[in-house]
Design brief:
- The protein has a single domain, classed as Roll (Thiol Ester Dehydrase, Chain A).
- It is 25% helix and 35% strand.
- The strands form two sheets. A five-stranded antiparallel β-sheet has the order 1-4-5-6-3. Strands 2-7 form a two-stranded antiparallel sheet.
- The longest helix has 19 residues.
- 20% of the residues are buried.
Length: 139
């Protein structure tokens, strides 16, 4: 089931052309990713990192820029999980502006790692169950 988040595009996020600087799309996506964990799994991302010593680095990123976001625009992010494997899962993003125009789409494959060894590990069952329950069959 997709989650929805909304945020205004602030001045520090834009370049001299007045449009959002392209790395900031990925920064926003990651911020929404972090917020999603509490809604999906009932645990916030800092606890996952600090207490559980789990990390979920990206191993594959793809995106498509469709239309610029500008200073003062409102970005709406639809975020969902399209696939959950044993050690990895795929997160999808769709950003729209205040006029509901799709401006950016992305797909990110993340892998579960032990932060003490940085070795990939099986996603712990209590997280995997929640991730699978929230994932979409068709996207």
């Amino acid at each position: 089931m997709p989650l929805m988040f909304t945020r205004r595009i602030d001045f520090p996020m834009v370049d001299l052309a007045g449009i959002m600087y392209y790395p900031n799309y990925w920064d926003l996506a990651h911020r929404f990713f972090e917020l999603s964990w509490e809604k999906i799994c009932g645990i916030n991302y800092p606890k996952i990192i600090h207490d559980l010593r789990l990390g979920f680095p990206a191993v594959r990123n793809q995106c498509e820029f469709l239309s610029p976001l500008r200073y003062g625009d409102t970005v709406k992010c639809k975020i969902w999980i399209s696939n959950v494997g044993n050690k990895s899962c795929t997160w999808k993003y769709e950003f729209t502006n205040q006029d509901n125009q799709v401006v950016w789409k992305a797909s990110v494959v993340i892998v579960c790692v032990n932060l003490d060894t940085f070795e990939s590990i099986v996603i712990p069952d209590f997280l995997a169950q929640s991730l699978k329950a929230s994932s979409t069959i068709n996207d």
